[in-house]
Amino acid sequence: MKDLRRVRIAELLKDPTPYIGKEVDVKGWVRSRRGNKYVQFVALNDGSTINNLQIVFDLQKFSDEQLKPITTGSSIHVQGQLVESQGKGQSVEIQAENLEIYGTANPDEYPLQKKGHSLEFLREIAHLRPRTNTFGAVFRVRAALAYAIHKFFTEKGFYYFHTPLITASDCEGAGAMFQVTTLPLNDLPKNEDGTIDYSEDFFGRQSCLTVSGQLEGELGATSLGAIYTFGPTFRAENSNTPRHLSEFWMIEPEIAFADIRENMDIAEEFIKYCINYALENCKDDILFLQEHFDKGLVERLKFVVENDFVRLPYSEGIKILEESGKKFEFPVYWGVDLASEHERYLVEEHFKRPVILTDYPKEIKAFYMKLNEDGKTVRAMDVLFPKIGEIIGGSEREENYDKLLKRVEEQGLDGMDWYLDTRKFGTVPHSGFGLGFERLVLFVTGMQNIRDVIPFPRYPKNCEY
Ligand code: 4AD
Ligand code: MG
Predict the structure, then answer these.
(1) What is the pLDDT of residue 9?
(2) Ligand 2 centre and the CA of 330: distance in Å?
(3) Which ligand is nearest to the CA of 253?
(4) Where are the alpha helices (DSSP H) in 182-249?
């Protein structure tokens, strides 16, 4: 092989003009090989784009024996001249001159032979599925969205604030935490009353994986002004649904001096910015996903970007559901925690656009939300999306020390002094929300199951790799 600099296929295809007629160097995995006894065509993919590069092997230059290892999934290094393509389906191709085989992929063993494997089958080989067109597209879109999120908040003056993954507090109070321990599970140290003696545990107390970075995020916001977190969160709920994961990523901005209205404005602007970023920067991948999985994808994404979200109090939402005449699986009444079917009715059938539902009954929301004057509802705001249901959950926070203390005591929460201190010393009105990252990726890619938008999904009874 000659000493040349490798070019990524995305760069070659984006603007081939400067490369045409020149010798180029590419490396990648073989997607397919076809041809006849004079010439062989190889579709090469290096992961940088959904598009393959065609490599042409002239059989006067290369023997059958040399080309034999080139099967689907094998990895190769090719040098040759980039020329305008004669054939249909691609603008340019490489006339191979030098070939190096990095690794073979025995066709009798390599599972990704033909196209059209089911997503369920691919989930069982999650270690190989990123090599398919579909998962390549999904994970490139996922990466672009992560970048858009950092870009949005950084440009708005928010600081990226790192909150702990191991914590002693249950932010959402749902009791769905994974415990972290180094105690010997078959010989636990006990107190005299028979309870477990956590003073012998690694941290000297009971500790868990976080369900949300919000509480610590509030410490950041009430000092740096505006922060966001972006990290993994863990929930041990036994929810086997296409919208729940046991390990998922969440983005949690927290803004000092913001009330619920400003919170809603930022949430709406933020989510539109991310979707628009993907539309502008992931065109090829989104068009591929649209063609194969979801014919209405681009139209739906554009619709969300271009239209105002409805803002509606919970009580009015309940009225609409009660008067809809629709038979729901779960009952509707004031005070009920809405099920996904209720949320989707409001969004998909009634308003036909995203809805921000506010002012929920305090009983069904977390302790930290600001109580309204009615004493019954809290200043919560959930953003509900078509096909997804709840994509964002947030609120204005209770900033009054006495009221917050009362809620903490009502819920029987211990060890919250550090959190209450934010209200004791220089308290300020503030708000924030959490966006479930995988639910956003689900929406933007048009995939149906949340397990297909994270490389290695964690869900009940599944923790491979
Ligand atoms: O509504 P949640 O539970 O809100 C919080 O955790 C707040 N502390 C956020 C805040 O105000 N800073 O979760 C926020 C979002 C949901 O709207 C949903 O999109 C996502 O996180 N989410 C999940 N995504 C995947 N799998 C799960 N099990 C999820 N649970 C929540
Ligand atoms: Mg929620």
Answers:
(1) 98
(2) 18
(3) 1
(4) 214-224
For ligand 1, the distance from its centroid to the CA atom of residue 224, given in whole angstroms, is: 23
- Find the residues whose C-beta lies inside 6 A of ligand 1: 171-172, 212, 214, 235, 244-245, 248, 250, 252, 390-394, 432-434, 436, 438-439
Q: Which residue owns the Cα nearest ligand 1 atom 15? A: 436
Select from 178, 250, 271 the residue to mutate for testing ligand 1; criterion: most ligand atoms less than 8 Å from CB: 250
pLDDT digits (tens, 9 = 90+) for 84-136: 988 777 789 999 999 999 999 999 999 998 777 999 999 999 999 999 999 99
Distance, CA of 94 to chain centre: 36
Q: Is the pTM of this model over 0.85?
A: yes
pLDDT at 90: 75
Whether the Cβ atoms of residue 391 and residue 435 lie closer than 8 Å to each other: yes
Q: Report residues near ion ligand 2: CB below 5 Å.
A: 393
Per-residue pLDDT reduced to its tens digit, 246-264: 999 999 999 999 999 999 9
- Total Cβ atoms within 10 A of residue 427: 17
* The two structure tokens encoding residue 36: 């006849």
- What span, in angstroms and rounded, lies between the C-alpha atoms of 172 and 461? 23
Is residue 340 within 8 Å of 364, Cβ to Cβ?
Answer: no
Residue 138 tokens, joined: 């999904």
Q: Give residue 393 CA to ligand 1 midpoint distance, Å.
A: 6
CA distance 456 to 465: 8
Residue type present at position 124: E
159 CA to middle of ligand 1, Å? 21
Cβ–Cβ under 8 Å, residues 141 and 445: yes
